[in-house]
C-alpha cells in the first residue's frame, strides 16, 4: 500500500511517499513531475518507520547536521535514469556539477540533454541531490520544485561547507 506523510521544511511542505518499506518519493507541493496519486495520507504517528526516519533525516539536513542520507529507497525509472540518479549521490555536499560534468561522469559526454531530463524526473528530491546540478556557466537552471527552492538548498549547503583553497 502506498502512503504519504507531509512534513514541514524551510522550503515548504514536503510530501514523503512510501510503499511501506522504502522511500519512493520526496515531492514539493508544486512539484513539476509529482505523481497524480501519492497514496493515502498518514499521520506521523501511524506512518511507516521509513517515513518517520526520512522526516528526521531531513530535519537534520536542514539544521546543517547531515550531509547525506541513509534511507532504503526504491524509485522506479529507466536504466539510464537509475544510472543518473545513482551518480547524483556522488556530487559532494556543498558542491555543484554541470549537466555536462554529470554526463562525462556517466561515460556519456554527449548526453547532457538526456542527463538533464533524467535529473528532472528524480522522484527523491533532496535525498538524491539533483539540486546540485547547474548550467555549464554555473547558472541555476530548472528544478522540479522551482529554481527558488533550488537556490535555497544550494545556499544552505554552501553556508555549511568550509571554504577550500584552490590546488
Automatic annotation (TrEMBL):
InterPro entries: MethylDNA_cys_MeTrfase_AS (IPR001497), MethylDNA_cys_MeTrfase_DNA-bd (IPR014048), MethylDNA_cys_MeTrfase_DNAb (IPR036217), MethylG_MeTrfase_N (IPR008332), MGMT (IPR023546), MGMT_N_sf (IPR036631), WH-like_DNA-bd_sf (IPR036388). Residues 6-74 form the Methylguanine DNA methyltransferase ribonuclease-like domain. GO terms for cellular component: cytoplasm. Its EC number is 2.1.1.63. It is an enzyme of class 2 (transferase). Residues 79-158 form the Methylated-DNA-[protein]-cysteine S-methyltransferase DNA binding domain. GO terms for biological process: DNA alkylation repair; methylation. Keywords: Cytoplasm, DNA damage, DNA repair, Methyltransferase, Transferase. It catalyses: a 6-O-methyl-2'-deoxyguanosine in DNA + L-cysteinyl-[protein] = S-methyl-L-cysteinyl-[protein] + a 2'-deoxyguanosine in DNA; a 4-O-methyl-thymidine in DNA + L-cysteinyl-[protein] = a thymidine in DNA + S-methyl-L-cysteinyl-[protein]. The active site is at 130 (nucleophile). Pfam families: DNA_binding_1, Methyltransf_1N. It is found in: Cytoplasm. The keyword Mitochondrion does not apply. GO terms for molecular function: methylated-DNA-[protein]-cysteine S-methyltransferase activity. Transmembrane segments: none annotated. This enzyme catalyzes only one turnover and therefore is not strictly catalytic. According to one definition, an enzyme is a biocatalyst that acts repeatedly and over many reaction cycles. Belongs to the MGMT family. Involved in the cellular defense against the biological effects of O6-methylguanine (O6-MeG) and O4-methylthymine (O4-MeT) in DNA. Repairs the methylated nucleobase in DNA by stoichiometrically transferring the methyl group to a cysteine residue in the enzyme. This is a suicide reaction: the enzyme is irreversibly inactivated. This is Methylated-DNA--protein-cysteine methyltransferase. The lineage of its organism: Bacteria, Bacillati, Actinomycetota, Actinomycetes, Micrococcales.
